[in-house]
Sequence to fold (132 residues):
Amino acid sequence: MRMELRVCKHCYNGEHGNPQKTAVTEDMVACAEQIREYKDLIGIDSLYISMVEEGDRGGAEALTVYVADIENDQIQMNDTQLVMEDDDGNVLVYPDPDDILEVLTRNIDQIDAQTRQDVGVDLSPDSEQILS
Fold:
């Protein structure tokens, strides 16, 4: 399985002035980094983390699948998404931050069950609220 987390670089850096979105974005990246560290324990071949900036064509580094919305008769590429491809070539795309956090934290739980190492990620109150 291959995975790619794409997040808005500006959200991650706190440049949009939305501290809740920044906290959730930081948590998604922290979870993905932890999963990448222990990926072999749960059968993940690779995990890429891409920081997307305005004007990027989705920011794909490894998995060239894009999710778009239509806003005001304009196509808008989703800058935050989790893309997963299994060994059979099936692709799942999660564009919703709530779903992304759910998938990433479940992967952390799977890793936790396979090791004695502390693999937990301290999530922000905003992420904790989403997951509750």
